[in-house]
Amino acid sequence: MTETIVTLVINELVQLIVHESKLLQGVHQQVMDIRDELESIQCFLKDTDKGGDLQDGVKTWVKQVREVAYHIEDVIDEYVLHMAQRLHQQSFITFLQQIGRLLKKIKPHHDIATKIQDIKISVREIKKRSERYGFSSSDQGSSNRATNITWHDPRVGSLFIEEDEVVGIESTRDELVSKLMGGVSKRSVISVVGMGGIGKTTLTKKVYENESVKGHFDCRVWITVSQSYNVSKILMSMIKQIYQAKETAPVQIHMIDEITLISQLRKCLQQKRYVVVFDDVWKTELWEIVKHALPCNDRGSRIIITTRSDLIGVSCRESLSDQVHKLQPLSQDKAWELFCRKAFQIEFQRCCPRELVRMSMDIVKKCEGLPLAIVAIGGLLSTKEKVPLEWQKLLDSLSSELECNPQLTSITNILSLSYHDLPCYLKPCYLYFGIFPEDYSISGTRLLWLWVAEGFIKGKKGKPLEDVAKEYLMELINRNLVQVSFGELDYEITIKYRIHDLLHEIILSKAGELNFCQVLEAGDTTFHGKSRCLSIHDVRENVFEKSEYSRVRSVFLFNISEIPKSFIVKLFKTFKLLKVLDFEDAPIDYLPQEVGNLFHLKNLSLRRTKVKILPKSVGRLQNLQTLNVMETAVRELPIEIFRLYKLRHILAHSHDFEIKSCLHSMRGVKIHEGVGSLNDLQTLTLIEANHHGGGLFEELGKLSQLRGLGISRMTAKRGKALCTSIQNLAHLEILVVNSISENEIIELESISSPPPFLEHIYLRGRLKKLPNWILELPNLGTLILFFSSLKEDPLSCVQALPNLITLSLNHAYDGEQLHFKEGGFRKLKKLTLRELKKLKMVEIGRGSLLGLEQLEIGPCPQMKELPSGIQYLERLKIIDFYEMQGEFVLRMQPNGGEDYWKVKKVSTIRLRYRIKGERYQIYKLDDSHLLECLQGIPT
User: Which CATH architecture has domain 422-513?
Assistant: First the structure.
């Protein structure tokens, strides 16, 4: 991680030298010299950054490098801040014109130029010290001086799991045994994929040792690969295992070159039915080599690969017979069973005593179905006295126990391997999850924009930073370090991301060690001020009492019920170098003028706060990239924001839940003329269309980088001007248009060349008909229509869209029938049919909606029975019915309902009825209270 920190500092220095050279007059050359010295130190850090136990001298050296890197960043940022504060009263353009003359007259704050010179000397001394230690660069191989020679693989125990520890994998084991012994005669590959500790090795070993498997294959080979491997040694081990049973291995096998070893293996396996396991594969390159040693001999040979990486699993698929098996965590029941077996293996007949149930369940929940953790923690508790006090002690101190207790460090060691395997650029992105509370899910856009603001993302030619950040996120997901979760917002499935609770504990430990992040929770009394990120989970007035100045770059607030005014004042006084200030969900009702002093601020979020007005001083935030005032009472953006030429994202729409109309509850903000000057803007949503003349749309058309656009209070007479603007937005991906009233027509017909990358369209307001250009969008994945009042069935128009995943019709169709024709909507996963008052019948043709997983219907008072053909939807998992008529619901009842057979295979069916205002009561089909509810509903 130290290499990562140094790399980030180098990147910042490069950006500063290139873009802010005038700010560095007088110290420019020294900054370049520091950059050069840091670059030469990088190679010495590569080996030490890969993990393992470092000697004390090396640890000290690495710590010194990390601290000096942070110090460099601090001094340069202080210097730039000092210059900006002296000149903030002038316009930005004047600032650039006169900076050179003024710098000659100003003595840098705290003699910063002298500090930079001192840093330069320090960096050179650190480099010389590394040479005295004799560190090697990564090009010279790993140094035994840098790391201890003796190291024990913590995963060895997975190969020797006792039978009583095998819980919840029986069906998967039998399935894999069947795949090994059955199926095609062609050689095939089975990749077993999942996060560390989930039981890949244990499962595969049980399959490998199965008596039926032993008898089915002529020879079996087990190879443990791990992170550091030697291909020649792996090939030699394979030959030895093959010859071990019946034949004599070639003499002096260790002298044979790699190509000859492969040829030897091919020759001896050509006539055999073999099974080979490559356990714990970390790189795709291994398979690219060893596959040539495994002949496709049409004898039913099998290869099993276990890996933490989805990409490795996919890369090993070379034919239809090859398969990827994604291993899932244990269910709650199986996790509980395994825990009880381990924790109470001697006493209580493996049952949990009543007084320990609550705490035991909390411990099991913390493990989130990870067998490695359940077995280790259960084993530790089996040695403890079975009293609540001992259980509570472990629960309260689990974080430190994972770090220090020899019985639990295997968990940390195994899970940490994934962190150490990360490339340099991914480590800070991964550690960033430590900022958020345990079990916290964060939206993708918020996460990516934060990474960009922090400087974690390295640009690629022709790609916006946000696209590169998305690639980073996908890589973490493919490594099974980040989990994808789903939520719902405004009739759309929202994708969020989280990490396993135990990974969160490990991240917090690592982030604290590196001064990357500090979390202040209830009871924490110390704020050391050294970390770059501060996550505050409990606010106390005196938390910063002893801190007059802090080098923290990011501040986040979570789960806070009250914030004293003095806290806000102290925060803005203490954190002068902030890049990120995230007040999302915080109980604040104003933003002080002092926010304008945060010259380095790149990301400001006030989402879901009570702030009503943005101070004009935000116009001094020259580096601001993201401004988020979503779901606040802010109704107008100050004209000063148009001075912020680095702005990339403005999010300003909100919901007024006291307004029942879905159309009017979503509000935008008023903006002044000048938005066309923000050339880097990618997101602008929602802004009011009727605030100032047609000039707004002319300015929007200049925003060539715009990807997300949201317009509210749209009128018909502005339609043509909006269409002209949209045609100029070649990169547009998201379009939201809300009309000024439910009866106002949205005129979008005159778009002749729609943006080719448009993926999501949300239209709220009347349509004469569905615009033809929508049918020309090959990338369209989401189409949401509200209050469209279409007369013609829209399905025939959009059914051929090749990538449509979500379709929602809400007050959008005034007809009596909807027909999903055979072969249409092949990729659709979610369908919503809401508030269709005249709809009587829905017909689903066989072969239509083949991928549908979720369906919402209602209220549709004219519908008397389920859609015909719904029984054909084999992937349908969830159906939600909203305030449907009694006759409709009774036909679905399990006990005699004539339509029940159509939906009996659907796993989740929910019936929702309003009971108080907007709140819904949810019933299941067989709920006895449902019949009481239906008594008041017409049949």
Answer: Orthogonal Bundle (1.10)
